[in-house]
């Protein structure tokens, strides 16, 4: 007995007539009658009372109920497998900021490929300012909000905050013997204004301006930063910070992952939480408004939320 047999029997039950069922199934009446007879022989009971209209025996009613359940489960299985096949054949074009690679991206991709080994992810770089302009070129854009209102945003992490990062040698060079006192006060008050004498590494946008978030943080702190180095390349800025050229203001999650030692040794860079009037930092996957997300897109979004929440 196979699923076709179940389908044949249920069609007979629905039509109440073997001839009509045969027409609906595009098989001969004789062939359908033989299939029904074989099912009855296999089960050892009569399933159908051959009258006009055809009716089901008690065993036939039980068989019809169970056959319906089996076919529903079978079709659900086929749909699920088809969805998996669609995912496996899909390709996601993932855009990331041109200024830097998000430090959590390699780990996230590794996790994603573990779950979906046949899925291809193409990485492209786009300046966040141009994200809406080039939204047709990508499926999802990984970035920190805010972005253009022409995009729809799916939050994948919303518990980030700002820190100031620098190596201890730099603080000792700038503040000398006063550093232990300033350090204790910085830890207690989280006031960036305590570091007004510190040189800073700044990130600028394509318009040659310091990015808005950093600018607003310094305005809140009440001072204009001393510029040690400025570029539009976030990864270069992180390296300049590691080398002691200046302090860096960025999100805690980015800094925590960026400055994590790959060889298990403590990082030279210290992270100090700071108070700001800015809203909590939101990391999102954004896409063109009205875009229908593919199954692959949805799986990537789900994986990103789980990965960032657990790491």
Uncertain regions spanning at least 5 consecutive residues: none
The coarse silhouette is rod-shaped
CATH top level class name of the largest domain: Alpha Beta
- Give the CATH superfamily of the largest domain: Periplasmic binding protein-like II
Report the span from N to C terminus.
51 Å
Q: Kindly report the CATH topology of the largest domain.
A: D-Maltodextrin-Binding Protein, domain 2
Report Rg. 32 Å
Secondary-structure element string: HHHEEHEHEEEEHHEHEHEHEEH
Assigned CATH architecture of the largest domain: 3-Layer(aba) Sandwich
Number of strand elements: 12
> Helicity, in percent?
40-55%
Widest beta sheet: strand line-up = 4-3-5-12-6
Beta-strand residue fraction: 15-25%
The count of helical stretches stands at 11
Please state the structural category. alpha/beta
What profile does the largest beta sheet have?
5 strands, mixed
Query: Any idea how many domains?
Result: 3
